[in-house]
Amino acid sequence: MSCNLTVEIAGVSFKNPIFVASGTFGYGLETQELTDSSSLGAVITKSITRHPREGNPPPRIVETPSGMINSIGLANMGVERYIDTVIPRIDEIGTAVITNIAGFSIDDYLYVMEKLEACKAPICGYEINISCPNVEAGRMEFAVDPELTGRLTESLREVTKKLLIIKLSPNVTGIASIALAAEQAGADAVSAINTVFGMSIDTQSRSPYVQTNVGGLSGPAVRPVGIACVYKISRKVNIPIIGIGGITSANDAVEYILAGASVVQVGTANYKNADTARSMIDELELYLAENGIENLSELTGGVIPNE
Ligand code: SIN
Questions:
Q1: Has domain 7-56+74-197+218-298 been given CATH number 3.40.50.720?
Q2: How many CA atoms lie within 13 A of 89 on its CB side?
Q3: Which residue owns the Cα nearest ligand 1 atom 2?
Q4: Residues with beta carbon inside 6 Å of ligand 1?
Q5: % of the chain exceeding 90 in pLDDT
Q6: How many CA atoms lie less than 13 Å away from 139 in the CB half-sphere?
Q7: What are the structural domain ranges in the chain?
Q8: Which residues pair with 165 in a beta bridge?
Q9: What is the best residue among 195, 196, 197, 210 to mutate for testing ligand 1's pocket, by most ligand atoms within 8 Å of CB?
Q10: Could you read off the pLDDT of 67-113 as tens digits, one per residue?
């Protein structure tokens, strides 16, 4: 039985629903020797900001039980250099590229997007990071406020016809309301979730392992949080949801899809093995064949909730 893994989001077609998450796959060019990125559904770049950023002082990553805390602080080359050095090589990635943008004000986000639109970057869309927990200036300002999320989304919508995805934070009381604000302001999709606030302390030195004390927890430890967020969002919005958080196997991806995700992103698992996402595609196809499912879309939101 042949299964159809293609997915469409707002008119953009992806060869399969397995994407790689921002911040875990560089700019899409660094992993060439480690995996075949051309077989992935899409590559989401590291967050790009208006100016280059060194990020937070080290140490900025620590392993935790079933997860990892990061406090990178949006280290990146800045939009000018991204346009000069990565954009001309984007074809080498061999699949759809979505550029992730971060900022500290609406102007910052607009600046980066306008630059990319002006150079006609051959990317299929943007993921807007409103949910980085690791920067002081404007910390989570957009992610926690539906009105600000709406204003930002609306401003960006005016600048691009490309795919516009808003990446949400789990560190809020009502993630579904933030998703709804993004939908009403013109977002094509939402991604959920970014990292969960986390802290881990060295009991000998009594110092937290990451320099900023608190960071963002990712990996299998957060998977149930991500799935619950996707489920809640799917009850409130009609736009596609991109599920993220602790996905390490096709079975994990199917959990997210049943909860309401149309596609998923593999993140922290890439640090262990950059080939994880690619290897999940065959596994997913097998799951569909074994369960007699011809089209992946039949699974989206297919959870049967308990009465
Ligand atoms: C970081 O750069 O600190 C992580 C990015 C994010 O969590 O959005």
A1: no
A2: 10
A3: 74
A4: 23, 47, 70-74, 129, 131-134, 194-195, 216
A5: 95
A6: 11
A7: 7-56+74-197+218-298
A8: 127, 189
A9: 195
A10: 999 999 999 999 999 999 999 999 999 999 999 999 999 999 999 99
